[in-house]
Amino acid sequence: MRTYKATVLLGLFALATLMSGCAHQWESVLDGTLYTRTHINRFPVVIAAVDGVSGLQNPRYIDAGERRLTIDAPPVAGFALPVRKEFTFKVERCVRYWLAAQRASALTQDFELVIDHAEPVPGCQPYGKPEPSVVIPAVIDPPRAIPVPKRP
Asked: What is the pTM of this model?
C-alpha cells in the first residue's frame, strides 16, 4: 500500500513538473548548426552565452530583442582552442536563426558571424494575431562585433 501511494505521488509530481515546463514562452530560436553546406569557409558555431548566461544547449530558445552573444568558432588547423568573439545581435520575434562563422580562408582565425538561414517559427504568432511571416535575410540587421581585449 505504501509503495502504491509513493508511486502515485511521484507520478503526480512528474506530471506537475512537465506541465510547469510548458509555462515559459520563448519567442525565437538561435541554432549553431549549419543549414546550408555549400558555402566555402563557413563553419558551425557554439553559442557559449547569451547576455552573459552560459549554456551549451543547441538550439537556444530566447526572447526577442537586442542580445549579446558569445560565439565560439571551431579552431583552424594547428590550433587546439576555439576562437571566441562577442557580438550584439537583434533577435526578431518568431524567427529561427541558423548562425555560422564565415572565414576569409580555411587557415585564418578571424571570423564574422553570419546568418546562414532564417525562417519563421511554426505556430508562433508574433504580435498576438496570426500573420504570415516572411523573413528576408537582406532586411535583417547583420551582427556587429564587440571589441574584446586579447587573452594573455
From this structure: 0.68
Q: Which of 63, 79, 64, 152 is nearest to 111 (CA)?
A: 79
Question: Rounded distance, CA 117 to CA 30, Å?
Answer: 11
- Look at residue 78 and tell me if it is in a domain: yes
- The answer to whether residue 69 sits within a structural domain is yes
Q: How confident is the model at residue 22 (pLDDT cuts 50, 70, 90)?
A: very low
Cβ proximity of 110 and 104 under 8 Å: yes
The Cα–Cα gap between 114 and 40 comes to 13
Q: How confident is the model at residue 146 (pLDDT cuts 50, 70, 90)?
A: confident
Residue type, 42: R
Q: How many domains does the chain have?
A: 1
As a whole number of angstroms, the distance between CA 86 and CA 104 comes to: 18
Range of the domain at 120: 25-146
**Is the residue at 6 inside a domain?**
no
In a domain? residue 76: yes
Instruction: Give the E-state strand segments of the chain in sequence order.
Output: 28-31, 42-43, 46-50, 53-54, 60-62, 65-73, 83-91, 95-102, 112-120, 144-146
